[in-house]
Write a structure and sequence with these properties.
Layout: E1 2-11, E2 14-24, E3 29-33, H1 40-47, E4 55-60, E5 63-64, H2 70-77, E6 80-83, H3 95-105, H4 111-123, H5 139-151, E7 157-161, H6 169-184, E8 188-192, H7 196-201, E9 209-214, E10 217-220
Parallel strand pairs: 3-8, 3-9, 6-7, 7-8
Antiparallel strand pairs: 1-2, 1-4, 4-5, 9-10
Helix pairs in contact: 3-4, 3-5, 4-5
The structure holds adenosine-5'-triphosphate.
Adenosine-5'-triphosphate binds next to helix 1.
Length: 225
């Protein structure tokens, strides 16, 4: 569904990585680790066509992102749910409307979809916070709202950039469990995290690949779990 084929990425003279290959197939689960600044967020942005590679190819559902026009890219992106590191909420909207935003923007919000938004908020444990503003949420609540918003268009692929960054251990495990549940439903998941103990916590319970981005290379990050 998403394929990186010998991808290189540089910002000006700063080459972040080269020769990076990766295939996110249905039902696959990948952890992406690596030091701060190695390029994990950049790699995720390449995976949904937010950036174009400076070398190699990124293919979304078969088509190289460099060849996709605006409409085709928007169409492909609707199949990819992104959980951003910083949430990226609109502060003047309620949590519920933030989650519904992809439906509002694409003109799909009706009574049935509104009820799906509420179901999703229930699934991530935020029913009682649906009328709050994003700035009133705790770190863990924000991350769960970001996950709900990423899921509202029923994507085939979920890209999560440090979703457990600012939350305590219990909440990290809870978020990871939500992602694993989605993965069991057949969705491809890529989860970037610094937290190796989180990866170890699911050892033996899930088939996942651990990738490490460091020294400008994307490689295996230790034993797969
Ligand atoms: N738009 C940009 N223009 C120029 N340099 C950038 C841009 N975006 C990121 N960088 C640089 O690229 C490098 C990699 O950034 P990136 O955010 O991808 O790393 P990361 O591995 O996700 O880091 P962290 O774990 O701290 O979030 C950093 O040195 C960053 O300053």
């Amino acid at each position: 569904m998403i394929e990186l084929d010998r991808v290189a990425m540089r910002y000006g003279d700063n080459e972040l990585f080269y020769d990076a290959s990766l295939s996110l197939t249905p039902g696959s689960f990948h952890f992406l680790t690596g030091p701060s600044g190695a390029g994990k967020t950049t790699l995720i942005r390449l995976c949904y066509g937010d950036l174009l590679p400076t070398g190699g190819n990124v293919r979304l559902f078969g088509d190289p992102t460099v060849t996709l026009g605006r409409d085709a890219l928007a169409h492909a992106r609707r199949r990819i749910g992104v959980v951003h590191q910083d949430g990226q909420f609109l502060d003047h909207l309620s949590v519920e409307d933030n989650v519904a935003l992809p439906l509002i923007v694409s003109g799909q919000l009706n009574a049935a979809r509104r009820s799906e938004v509420r179901d999703l908020l229930g699934w991530v444990g935020l029913s009682s916070r649906r009328n709050a503003r994003p700035q009133e949420l705790s770190g863990g609540e924000k991350q769960r709202a970001a996950l709900a918003r990423a899921l509202i268009l029923s994507p085939d692929v979920i890209l999560a950039d440090e979703p457990t960054g600012n939350v305590d251990w219990e909440m990290s495990v809870r978020l990871l469990k939500l992602l694993l549940e989605l993965n069991r439903l057949g969705k491809a998941v890529l989860l970037a995290t610094h937290d190796l103990s989180l990866i170890r916590s699911v050892r033996g319970t899930v088939q996942a690949r651990v990738l490490r981005l460091s020294d400008r290379r994307l490689g295996a990050g230790g034993a797969d779990i």
